[in-house]
Amino acid sequence: MLAVLTANVRFSETVALDDVSISVADGEVVAVLGPSGSGKTTLLRAVAGLQPLHTGSVTWNGEDLTTVPTHQRNFGLMFQDFALFPHLDVAGNVAFGLRMQGVPAEQRRRRTAEALERVELRGFEKRRMGTLSGGEAQRVALARALAPGPRMLLLDEPLGSLDRALRERLSIELRSLLTRLGITALYVTHDQTEAFTLADRVAVLDKGSILQIGTAEGVWTRPANETVARFLGQQNLVPGTIEGGWATTPLGVIPAPRDAAEGPARLVIRPEALSVDPRGPIEGVLRSRLFRGTDYLVEIETGDIVIEALLRGAPKPGTTIRLAVEPGGVTVLRESTTPPHQEQP
Amino acid sequence: MDDNSGAVRRFSWAIAALAAIPLAFLAMFFIWPVASIIFTSLSPGGRFDFTSLREVLTNADLLGVAWFTLWQAAASTVLTLIVALPGAYVFARYDFPGKRFLRAAATVPFVLPTVVVGTAFLALVGSNGLLGVDLDGTIWAILAAHVFFNYAVVLRTVGGLWSHLDPALEEAARSLGASRWRAFTGVTLPLLRPAIAAAASIVFLFTFTSFGVVLILGGPGLATLEVEIYRQAKQLLDLPTAAVLAIIQMIGVTAILTAYSRYQERSAVEQGLRPAAEVATRPRTRGQRALVAGVLASMALLLGGPIAVLVERSLHGEAGYGFGFYRDLGEGTRTGAQIADPIKAISNSASFAVVATGIALLVGLCAAAVIARRRGRLSRWFDALLMLPLGTSAVTIGFGFLVALDAPIDLRASWILIPLAHALVAVPFVVRSVVPVMRSVRQRLREAAAVLGAPPHRVWREIDLPIVARATAVGAGFAFAVSLGEFGATSLVARPQTSQTLPLAIYRFLGQPGAFNFGRAMAMSVILMIVTAISIFLIERFRTPGLGTF
Fold it and tell me: Based on CB atoms within 10 Å of each CB, which residue in A95, A222, A255, A335 is the most buried?
């Protein structure tokens, strides 16, 4: 099990990591989700030993790795730009870690072939780096990281440089590969879909601090604060007062979460929890609609508030409609200043 | 923070130690000799004497030489650009069979010894030349030789950038309503400007300091500053005048280099670059085929012609075609043998080139490591300082060696002077070949190796060394070729009996009357050309595609 405890990293004036604590259990995949500049790559580099910690520690099964140099940590790291060695062929890249361990040539060849087979690149041994497509390079980088049998895998936006269709396909493949091999992994990304697809747990990082850690579902349905909600793309934030299971908001009276405390609160309404209903509590004018294949993303204006909704069908812009809210689709936010919301897996 | 600043301080010490070797080399074998020759020439009695300065600046003949140097360099540069830009375009945008070979072949003239180039044009347009027109001693022969010599500079520098320029940029301009010509002048040309400026300044620098070509083709009437320095110092023994001319030349060179580096600083534009293979296509329309064919034909004529004539003349003996002149090189029996010993000259040239390459690699790799690690003003100045010997009068360097290198050890009579002078000129080639590749070894790759379990010394051995080794081989090839062809400095420091080199022997034979001596000079030029060409083709094999300035 990997444990990072109150890690701090500072670059002259700026704080890159601010008291970050995070753990990854054996066989677990944890995604660190955050905008660019949030410190997520620094966290990964600190775990790999490429970035010294100012204070704090990195341990593996209780063994302190904080001062152990990178090459003795036995972590696999997959870089965002893959960092494949241009002077070696595919086999040379994949076998590099085995060679560093002093694995004999015959065994090395076999394990290289196995690693390539695992990422479905059988027979690619002699290919040069310049001849690989983006998806192939990504697989070679994965095979190279996995071949020496690392304790855990660190992945830095490994799908970031690929196009959307390839990214979606490969994130599903990666998920099944990590699960099948039971690999412990820390996965850094700015893409929530990717994080939700791949990870058992998701940590949201912003300005060097972890705002929330939880299951993908938990983070999505119960964002801890406004920053997390906004980062996840949830735009429907409204003030309200909770009383007897109902929340009175400028939009109307909507069902409140069951365990919500009474009194004033900030609420977030998830767009997929809204539906067209002539008897619904929210009335508004449809401002725009965007057909997305399976549904419509619409903007509805009520008073001076604009909310987003995902609807099965949508009338023309300018039409007045009424919307109902699914009881589970409303979350009460804590104040952004409260400490991170911890949740056990 | 504390650990970090310690690491930074260690880092600086390592850089300083690396920088010390090239700095000491430059101080001892460039700055000190050149400064000595200038001081001793200008202050004969221990006091500064400005009469020679006044004499030079009021001497119409010498001012004429300075003016000629300037305008022939400008004319050569413009002419080279006009002739070579279509070639750069065709090589950048079209694929055709034999392209790699032709690119390498086009580079051969650039590294050919100046003496060989001069000889080749003498064989073509000289008094008993093949074309039957006597242009010997005219500006036309010199301009033609300069274009021949520098074609590859434009082809490689401009063509290199052009081949990576995304054609979509020009297509975008066309789709926005620009005509073909406006798209070229409005988009492509501005993007190519840094490469064109770089090529133009290199060509200007080389033609501004042109020596061997002008010495052979200029006759008694035409001389560049470099030739005049040689004439004043070696033939008229007027050292003060030579020194003043050397200073004038150095000021000119420094001005060119400064203007160039200023320009490079200002024009660092992020560009949309694509791998060359995606950009080049086979010529499809009739017009495109005609263009490619035309450019290749003119290249064959311009670059292949003089070389072919050289070979033809070397084989054309008194009794028809044969290897007579070559066989005679080995026999010292016939008249003229005492002028130069060809076999000795060949073995001298080879061993000097090996030693010079070794020195240039040692100095150049240290310098490259410093320049590659550090970006910024200091690194650029260091780079410019290393370039300076390339633009300094080789004759002045040679003279400086003879004047200054008597302490602490008297090196003046030693053969080591020759490879040292060659290394001085070769170092910039090593630096230019290695720095871009060293910079391309990204920190990421070292980190990736460390994560995979490589301790620091293995990271260096497995990542840095193999990647830089190829570029080092390229630099070594250039250094070897430069040393083989160096003429200006060698002509002063070499001893005729013991340390004569091939270019010197060729020049000696050319200076003697008779078809026999002419034929021998041709034969030796062909040998020198073949050895140089081989080292260039080896360079092509080792070159990392897309990297390197030359």
Answer: A95
Residue written as tokens 């850094």? A188
User: Within 10 A of A316 (CB to CB), how many other CB atoms are there?
Assistant: 7
With a CB cutoff of 8 Å and minimum separation 6, the contacts of A37 are none
Q: How many CA atoms lie within 13 A of B420 on its CB side?
A: 22
Which residue from B56, B520, A24, B499 is spatially nearest to B508, judged by alpha carbons? B520
Identify the CA nearest to A152 among candidates A178, A175, A177, A190. A178
Q: Chain A contacts of B463, Cβ < 8 Å?
A: 85
Q: Is residue B322 one of the residues assigned to a domain?
A: no
Strands B316-317 and B320-321: antiparallel
A148 CB neighbours in chain B (<8 A) are 452-453
Q: Is residue B150 part of a domain?
A: yes
The tokens 């085995």 sit on which residue?
A98
A291 in contact with B, Cβ within 8 Å = no
Tokens of B538: 């080896």
Q: Domain of B31: which CATH number?
A: 1.10.3720.10
Cβ neighbours of A74 in B, within 8 Å: 453
State whether residue A130 sits within 8 Å of chain B by CB: yes
Is the bond preceding residue B408 a cis peptide, omega within 30 degrees? yes
Q: What's the gap in Å between the CA of A79 and the closest CA on chain B?
A: 8
Are B447 and A79 an interchain contact pair (Cβ–Cβ within 8 Å)? yes
Question: CB–CB of A85 and B449 under 8 A?
Answer: yes
B300: which 2 tokens?
């064959």
Q: Summarize pLDDT for B199-226 with one digit per residue, the tens.
A: 888 899 889 988 888 988 887 788 899 8
d(CA B398, CA B409): 17
Number of domains present in the structure of chain B: 1
CA separation for the pair B128, B123 (Å, rounded): 7
Q: Is A58 exposed, middle or buried (0-12, 13-18, 19+ CB in 10 A)?
A: buried
**Cβ–Cβ contact A10 with B under 8 A:** yes
Q: Tokens 């009520």, residue? A: A302
Count of C-beta atoms within a 10 Å radius of residue A53: 21
d(C-alpha B337, C-alpha A285), whole Å: 105
Containing structural domain, residue B224? 6-44+58-307+338-549
By the CB < 8 Å criterion, does B2 face chain A? no
Query: Does the complex come out with an ipTM higher than 0.90?
Result: no
Q: Check residue B428 and give its pLDDT.
A: 86
Q: Is B301 contained in some domain?
A: yes
Q: What sign for the dihedral angle of Cα B235, B241, B243, B246? A: negative
Q: Degrees (nearest 5) of the Cα angle B188, B192, B194?
A: 150
* Whole-angstrom distance, CA of residue B99 vs CA of residue B336: 43
Strands A296-302 and A305-311: antiparallel
Amino acid of residue A266: R
What's residue A344's pLDDT? 42
Give the tokens for residue A324. 């109902």
B173 within a domain of the structure (yes/no)? yes
Among candidates A10, A52, A75 on the partner chain, residue whose Cβ is nearest the Cβ of B451: A75
Nearest to A100 among B442, B453, B456 (CB): B453
Flag whether residue A81 sits within 8 Å of chain B, measured between CB atoms.
yes
User: Contact at 8 Å (CB) between B517 and B510?
Assistant: yes
Which stretches of A123-262 are assigned E, i.e. beta strand?
Answer: 152-156, 185-189, 201-206, 209-215, 237-243, 246-249, 252-255
Q: Where are the beta strands (DSSP E) in B233-364?
A: 316-317, 320-321
Stretch (H or E) spanning B414? none
Alpha carbon of A161: minimum distance to chain B alpha carbons (Å): 16
Q: What is the CA radius of gyration of chain A?
A: 24
Interval A174-209: pLDDT, tens:
888 889 989 999 999 988 888 888 899 999 999 999
**Rounded CA separation B183/B190 (Å):** 10
Q: Given a cut of 90, is residue B127 above it in pLDDT?
A: no
Token duo for residue B540: 């092509």
